[in-house]
Amino acid sequence: MEVILLERVEKLGAIGDVVTVKNGFARNYLLPNKKALRANEANRKLFEVNRKRIEADNADKRAEAEKASKGVEGKTVQLIRQASNVGHLYGSVSARDIVEALEGEGAKVTKSQIVLDKPIKSIGMHDVKVALHPEVAVTVRVNVARSPEEADLQAQGIDVMAQMFERDAAPAPEELTPIAATDEASAADETAAEPEAEAEAEPEAASEDEAQPAEEGEEQA
Question: Cα–chain-centroid distance for residue 55?
Fold first, then answer.
């Protein structure tokens, strides 16, 4: 379907552009949200008659959005959620959750302005786009954690999950054998064994000496 854009639409075009889109996208999103008109002859004439007013209205809305963006840009909100040992949430963080958290920080946005490419389903620091106007977008950070203490660590730049995996992968204290101590014990055992070997060797040598005169006497006889 061909439509005339009444505002800038990302990846499609700017005000006044005639673009071809899928029928479902036009019927379910562009037309009901007054972002476009069907590109028939009557609407083309209607748009051209009202073009200056449409562009002026868009400029006013853009200016308001730029002003509002100062109270939203760079905000960080904290959401405490239950999650598994590997950090997967029991559920997900929705656009409504983010809106409510931002309102708690004094930033007013609507659910439709939150742009989530995919649901947030894990703990961590997540950058979320907020489109205040088709031409004005800002980014906020959503700190999703299992506890306030964990959220504080993440806010400091610590990867909680990586830290936990490293701790789980490390061998238990009893599994660690002090190499230096083992070497010293082996050396001590070897040193202690030397006098014993010498002591055992001395009687054997004496026996051999005693045996030699006897052998000599037998030969003389």
Answer: 41
The Cα angle at residue 205 between residues 204 and 207, in degrees rounded to 5 = 65
**Tens-digit pLDDT profile for residues 30-43:** 999 999 999 999 99
User: Global pTM?
Assistant: 0.69
Domain limits, the chain: 2-69, 76-169
Topology classification of domain 76-169: Ribosomal Protein L9; domain 2 (3.10.430)
